[in-house]
From TrEMBL:
Residues 28-404 form the FMN hydroxy acid dehydrogenase domain. This is L-lactate dehydrogenase (Cytochrome). It comes from the Bacteria. GO terms for molecular function: FMN binding; oxidoreductase activity, acting on CH-OH group of donors. Pfam families: FMN_dh. It comes from Halopolyspora algeriensis. FMN binds at residues 107-109, 136, 158, 186, 276, 298, 354-355. The lineage of its organism: Bacteria, Bacillati, Actinomycetota, Actinomycetes, Actinomycetes incertae sedis. InterPro entries: Aldolase_TIM, Alpha-hydoxy_acid_DH_FMN, FMN-dep_DH, FMN_HAD, FMN_hydac_DH_AS.
Amino acid sequence: MVRRQLPRWSELRPLLRVDRPEFDPTRRRLSRAHTIGDLRSLARRRTPRAVFDYTDGAAENETSLQRARQAFRNVEFQPHVLRNVSDVDTSHDILGRRAALPFSFAPTGFTRMMHHEGEQAVVRIAQQAGIPYALSTMGTTSIEDTAAAGPDARKWFQLYVWRDRSAGKDLVQRARESGYEALILTVDTPVAGARLRDVRNGLTIPPSLTLRTIADAATHPAWWFNLLTTEPLTFASFKRWEGTVAELIDEMFDPTLSFADVEWLRGLWDGPLIIKGIQNAEDARRVVDLGADAVILSNHGGRQLDRAPTMLELLPRVRDGIGDRAQIMLDTGILNGADIVAALARGADSCLVGRAYLYGLMAGGQRGVQRAVEILRTEIVRTLQLLGVSSVEELDSSHATLRP
């Protein structure tokens, strides 16, 4: 028989805790987010379906994106024990300069559509976190205004080559004059991918007021209020567009883009040149031969060619092909700090995250982006400690393998 007794007050008192009420709804909301997945759930509730799906979705059956995430799930870490991991160094060399964390903020289009604070919020957090931020040609804040918002941030400009080459040349000049450190040429978008969520949602840029969106406004009043009462959506590189994303890409982007354009751009830009959208080892070797300082292994977040190569699996072949002649960056499918650690161990020099910080932006504006960085930083540090590694620089292939 178990003998029972009523607890004494002296025994209960240490167990009682009253949480201090949090009256700031954004802080209260973000305090409940412990993973990027939590931020994604908050973002889904905070934004209209078409806007969330634009960020969250991929092309056709979304197989490329699913495979990228599955590859990270297939990583098996190989920890080393009995190491002193009381102090972990997360800093890393990115394009010859030290970054506080081994990742950068990827270029994303239409960022002010996700949240009215947009690119300016993101570049401020990049500056605060000590990591690079890449502004997209399709960004919704100008090159100059983004630079002013993060004067001490490491800023990169991502270029799509237009049919009008003089327009691209002008963008490069503006980026140089505004103090951007590096130029990213995206090469995987000769035409628009079939992003079926956008098609089914009838997404236009800017979002149109239709019976569907008006009904949606009733459940997302704050988002619509902010959209309609702040500056109209304009772009980093042009003033306005009315239509779908696919129509914009097919109208303005140049499908004749070739290796000759890499040479042209190398002659135009004397800073670090990064080529984004590399999906095989041969193309990586060729652009490095033409003067690229870094390549980004990327299938555009699964948003262009569905069933494209999986970057984490491709990574060792590209490393073997180019050696140390250029840095290798990797994106697509990264939703956890452990994913970043895995990519570094597999041979990447750094990673880029896009959706991860956009979920934070949609969930809570600038503070949401900050929360995304805090989550990734915490996960990176914890993963390194559990691997028995005290510095990002120590990672190598002995720390991570891919299960078949």
